[in-house]
Amino acid sequence: MTKEERYWACAQELLKLVGGKENIISAAHCATRLRLVLKDESKADVDGILKVDLVKGQFANGGQFQIIIGSGTVNEVYKRFIEAGGIAEATKILTPLLTVMVTGFVTFTLVGGIMRTAGDMLTNSFVWMHDTLGIVGGMVLGFLYSPLTMTGMHHSLLPVDIQMVAAGGSFLLAIASCNNVAQGGATLCAMVRTKDKKLKSVAATSGVSAMLGITEPAMFGVNLKLKYPFYGAMMGAALGGGYVTLTNVLNTAPGTAGIVGFVCVPASSMLNFLIGTAISIGAGFIFTYILSNLKKFNKELEKKEDSPEDKTDRTREAVMTVEKNVICSPLTGTAIPMSQVPDGTFAAEVLGKGMAVIPSEGKVVSPCEGRISALFDTKHAIGITTKEGTELLIHVGVNTVELKGKYYEAHVAQGDEVKPGQLILTFDIQKIQEAGYPVVTPVIIANTEAYKSVEGLKTGEIHCMEPLMKLEEQ
What we know:
- This protein is of the alpha+beta class.
- The chain is built from 15 helices and 18 strands.
- Helix 8 packs parallel to helix 12.
- It is about 45% helix and about 20% strand.
- The strands form four sheets. Strands 13-9-10-11-15-7-6-17 form an eight-stranded antiparallel β-sheet, with no helix packed on it.
């Protein structure tokens, strides 16, 4: 898929999974996240959202349903999201005036006062620990900084940092930098340890960005999801925080809390700053690795069976070694004999012998290397001619030609060359069934006469790219 197609596919899937346009009160985005206010968050399919391509994580905070997508991508997905949902510019930011006035009054008179007091107490306790407890205080500050970042309370320290800088120097940048790079080290360890291929991909990029000061994708997309990397990062930040406190590393200008923060400290402290961040990265990685070997913290160790995704990936990798004339399943679902298809023509194999799959996912992939020889305008059926000359017909649903293409989306065009496992068609199972049509999908060998026999290899649960049929030549 092209970038444009991926942006559109992500936006359309997210719109559906958050409950549709009617469940959206407002939509906005920041540098890394899609920020939604939903009427009913329980209508959002969180598990489905986390499986969407380009999505790196999800969490709810402060009345916002936030979907982590990443810098440079979120704005592109957001534009398609707004367009796909027909959300007018005004509805993105417009809130009834009375609500604004009431909310503003409560914020400034009640919430503001409470949070200001909480922020002052937090700041005073941080300064006291640093000045009184020395290295122990620095370790405690490093350990607690991640939970503060998670809740957003770390923002209350910024004015204090600026005041201390004006007075000669602040210890906060070094502590924050140790925390951020520790999150990055823990994320990179999670990349090595997790079995989730999508999470590995997210961890690779977000781990590096965390070391540069942007921790949200790493923290919310990986570490909090797995939990044990978050704990490992807290311990790593504690060791780094202790070191920079022991060596009295102070920043003399505000800056980015990450490895690059060394430019904000005096030349005499740069080496100790870098040593402190190196300790945090290494310790965060090591503590995360230790915790990943404990079943109490790493739930993946309790899984005795491979996930469906692992099985699909393994069968896709093995397809190249499958013997000649074996046809793999283009769908995930339940394989059944053609005789059980609720249609006389298919059941009698008038169009050719084959097998059928009752899909559990609305995706069709190419089961082989070949060429799209037929793509119907109604998109309900696709023909593929393999390199060996086998003519396949994949017919999604029974009598679904009557839908005239509704609820189907083709991802290829007639004449396109396709590879095994390549996505060629998506469809909405629920909508098709609600319209009164079975979604059982015959996979037909259209040139059956060219073969001595067509034998089904499996019935029951099947994953896409798992062997479905075997052909015997004349």
